[in-house]
Amino acid sequence: MKAEVISIGDELLFGQVVNTNASFICEKLTDLNIPVKKVSTVGDHRDYIINAFNVAIRNSDVIVVTGGLGPTHDDITRNCVAEFFNSKLIMNETVLSDIKERFARFNRPLSKVNEEQALVPDVADVVRNLNGTAPGYWIEKDNKVFIVMPGVPREMKEMMTGEVSDKLKELAAKQNLFYKRANILTTGIAESTLFEKLGDITELVDSGTLAFLPNYSGVRLRIGYSGEDELLVQSKISEIEQRIRSKVGRYIYGREDDTLGKVVGRLLSERGLTISVAESCTGGNISNEITNYSGSSIYFERGIVAYSNASKVEILNVNEDTLQNFGAVSKETVEEMAQGIRGISGSDYGLAITGIMGPTGATNEKPVGTVFIACSDAKTVVSKKYNFGDDRIINKQRATFAALELVRRILLGINVES
Amino acid sequence: MKAEVISIGDELLFGQVVNTNASFICEKLTDLNIPVKKVSTVGDHRDYIINAFNVAIRNSDVIVVTGGLGPTHDDITRNCVAEFFNSKLIMNETVLSDIKERFARFNRPLSKVNEEQALVPDVADVVRNLNGTAPGYWIEKDNKVFIVMPGVPREMKEMMTGEVSDKLKELAAKQNLFYKRANILTTGIAESTLFEKLGDITELVDSGTLAFLPNYSGVRLRIGYSGEDELLVQSKISEIEQRIRSKVGRYIYGREDDTLGKVVGRLLSERGLTISVAESCTGGNISNEITNYSGSSIYFERGIVAYSNASKVEILNVNEDTLQNFGAVSKETVEEMAQGIRGISGSDYGLAITGIMGPTGATNEKPVGTVFIACSDAKTVVSKKYNFGDDRIINKQRATFAALELVRRILLGINVES
Q: What ipTM goes with this model?
């Protein structure tokens, strides 16, 4: 069984909206053992849409379409679907009452364009929209499944993980082939170094696959394996993962959808420990990342974004002489910041960061990308210097991950230097 | 002249990597008056890649390919390009010396897989890679242009905005058709309300186009117009924008790649004013957004992430009785936070936020999504209550935008209530 995803919307071809829907749908289909072979994106133009439908239905068994179902004039997907299946639009009473109920709930006046969203091609079963007004369609014809969903991510995601996923599961169960994958997340090691440390890939993965997926937080290793025996496939994946761990384990901070923020949070809560953060150059991004997870209020006490020198002295008790003699971006300052935030908050750990994110602020000795990070506990303070690149936003991200990785290593007793 | 973008990589079909490259390339091509008619994504498999090349070269004049040029075993784009153009791989000495120089500069050992990245199909002109090792290709054949670039965003972007863009500009100049667009950014108004306030779209845009592009920060309106007379096209765009501004101007915070953080920063610096921020529920995200822009240290003094009640009392001088009587999520608390942060920082404005982001922490009176935002100056404190949704991360984003919009309205003297 093969799938194709079709995204519809001029905004995608203009490049102003990133196609996050396609990746979300691809991931769900992959997890359901329905491999995606192609993603196509076309604009809000009848000819291109119909052509994409034709190509997809020739080559694939499952076609998932999103976008162009909204209430405004540039949304033409519904009419194209009706034309493609030679189908009439009829008013669907369930959908209409869903829409009415929704508008009443939010106290919003119901307009004619909203009511018209209840018009559905008669070839389609309706997929109800719990987060919006435009319904989805489930169409089965000639052994092909054709699914249409709105382009609003929240609406599509709810359908895709709910009703659509349930129906696809039934379909997928009829195949007798199992594909499994595992993602191992590394940080603090370059892709080519990782590649060399892992040695002969063919030997490592047996008849499976291994992909290297670098991003700013590190390199993700994706293991894939397929076969007819589900248990065997699963055990092969575990074996490959074990071999990888034995070679580069210290760089592995998590699996699947783990993030450094989540992992550090988990390590802190397991140990009943707390942390507070003093940031300069990352401007709140470390605290923001830590507090992205529910339950973070248990281990995160407070954060200080000490942007001005005055705030470093007044709140964090950094010595004015230290700032004077060594500068705001220095090992000495960051260590005092770490001890300062720990002191005022009473947290077990104090994490601090200072650096030059660019494009301005550099000196000869301290180019853009120079960052110092320190972590203090009751006994000691550990600090480290980093050299990132010249892009401000990327530097903020990389520095945030490096700070969290420093904490992870300290919590696990891993050498912080290599 | 029509373009097609082809993205190559299993990771894209697995859905684990979002295709930000395609949107970046689409935007650049659109700006060069080379409209993109289709984006295709295929995996690292010879048959699918060659098939995509065949379809694209039949239908389009400019084909832009990214991905699969890396040093590891799963990168096969180079060999597919060589096969497709019936071309031999030859060692390119310029590329080899670029690679050697790069590794020497970063003090990294040069491995054989890295050296092999200097093998280039002989049909291609090399596009040098200033941010990495794999070169890009520029291939002209039978009046078609075929461009291949690495999938690493930083490397692709440098090529696409540099050498590739220069060459495409020359090509595009030969056409005699001008397409222009403008993006108007609104916030604080729902898509359907905006649609209704704008009235008859056909009348509004003349023979141009108007698209509604909602996201968590608001609704973006994209105006498009094309014609043979560049000046006329530009003036039509301006006219349409003026008509839109006259109807919904108060909701418009910027144009093109403006963000609320950038706009608020600009308004503060123009006026020589400073701000400090006290955040609870957004966990540092407001400070993070404000400090994403170079020069923010001039108007941003400090930020406090007062997650615990103790930190609200100790640092922000919130009255313990206020917390006791009204709770941490209340109008009374947020107003004291705003006055507190203003007092300790000496900034002109104190911005504060407190709320329940979910999934836990809700009460009957204060469901998940309840947020209070306040902004204080020397004379007064303005506060407002918001009801967002039930997704923690989306709530953090929406609350951040709402806080910045409150400041924007205050700085521009726009009524904050509607």
A: 0.80
